[in-house]
Amino acid sequence: MKTDVLIVGGGPAGLATAIALRRRGASVMVADARKPPIDKACGEGLMPDSLRDLGTLGIEVTSTDGASFRGIRFVNHGKESAVATALFPPGENAGAGIGVRRQTLHARMVTRAEEAGVDLRWLTPVRLESSGKVKLAGNAVGYEWLVGADGQGSQVRRWAGLEQGTILSRRYGFRQHFRVAPWSSFVEVHWGVRGQAYVTPTGPDEVCVAAIVRDPHCKLQTLLAEMPRLRERLGGSSTNGSSPGSSPLDLERGALTTTRRLHRVARGRVALVGDASGSVDAITGEGMGIAFREGLLLAECLERGDLARYNRLHPAILRLPRTMTRAMLWMDRSAMLRDRAIRLLVSQPTLFERMLGVHLGEESICKFLAADGLPMAWKLTMQ
User: Fold this and answer.
1) Which residues contact 33 (CB under 8 A, 6 or more apart)?
2) Which residue in 45, 111, 149, 251 is a FRET match for 347, CA 20 to 30 A apart?
């Protein structure tokens, strides 16, 4: 077996890279020990810029696949109860987001990969040998380039000697779907003492609730207990369905979420993409968008045969999400800062919308900080 590019991992990052490479004429093989559609515990909200990148790959996701949302809402359940709302700004990367089940998105991406002519090898274990050989289900495969798209615990990353880096944060995520009509057209971020709960509309009669916490023993039910308004919206139900109200549609599913920075994401003929290449805490909601942008960049660099360019440009994709991660993790760790920050966003909704614009790439963070950074810092420290 031979291929121009062998991709280990058939999740969204691997499929996005494969489709982007096929559009540039490369032969591509994707191998994964799982079978589609592949699920993962995540918030399931696609931001407007992520939808744009999917469109570049020839994949259209609309509200008929799930449900649309038109902004972000922060709900504070701390000492000070407050609600701050921001609409997506108009612009190239803005508009509306789509909440869609992860399996629905994956199935759509698999179909597009098949249409593009990607050689998909499902239920195919990959063995990376110390000699440098790669075997799929026991059969050797020849390749020009090898891409690791196999997640946070990437075996390709270890095999290629690309592990060197730093884990800046480690938290735990849990996700469950509830049968209840969405009560707003926003992704709601509910802030509590133990962590955050993200509520994303994923259909006309269902929502996805994803929790992110510092304590691995804190489950979704525990977090909801300290968020009475969200619990009421969900009908007062517990996550095991023992109480009246909206009923859970599935079991709680968990995953680790980290902020990891790698020194290099490519070496020799091997490159990393998606969570294998470094990650940001799920608090940003940008995991999918990052993966799509990395896949598009890597395809361009492989067409040029220039992985040094990939090493050089890759950090820029993660720079803004990591900046946002630091700010939001400060809010997670400090109840006082969280109360002050959300109070400020309530009093100045245009500020919240501008921050959302920075998040979507509609405004540079330097321009935003030059105009609003010092006044905002003063208000946060002096309130």
Assistant:
1) 123, 124, 125, 126
2) 45
Domain ranges of the chain: 2-69+101-167+258-326, 335-382
Query: What three-state secondary structure class fits 81?
Result: strand
- Smallest CA-to-CA distance from 291 within 97, 105, 67 is with 105
Report the alpha-carbon distance of residue 242 to residue 41 in Å, rounded. 23
At 181-235, the pLDDT tens digits run: 999 999 999 999 999 999 999 999 999 999 999 998 888 888 998 898 899 899 7
Q: Alpha-carbon distance 288 to 378, whole Å?
A: 34
Tokens 């003929």 appear where?
A: 269
Angle (nearest 5°) at CA 297 between 291 and 302: 120
Decide: pTM greater than 0.85: yes
User: In the chain, what's the furthest Cα-to-Cα distance?
Assistant: 65
CA angle in degrees (0–180, nearest 5) for 290-255-295: 20
Beta strands 165-179; 247-248: pairing state? antiparallel
Report in angstroms the alpha-carbon separations of 381 from 22, 85, 240, 344: 51, 22, 41, 11
**301, 326, 9, 98 alpha-carbon torsion, rounded to 10°:** -90
- Summarised one tens digit per residue, pLDDT across range 4-53 is 999 999 999 999 999 999 999 999 999 999 999 999 888 899 999 999 99
Question: CB under 8 Å to 244, separation ≥6 — which residues?
Answer: 235, 236, 237
Architecture of domain 2-69+101-167+258-326: 3-Layer(bba) Sandwich (3.50)
Q: What's the DSSP call for residue 252?
A: -
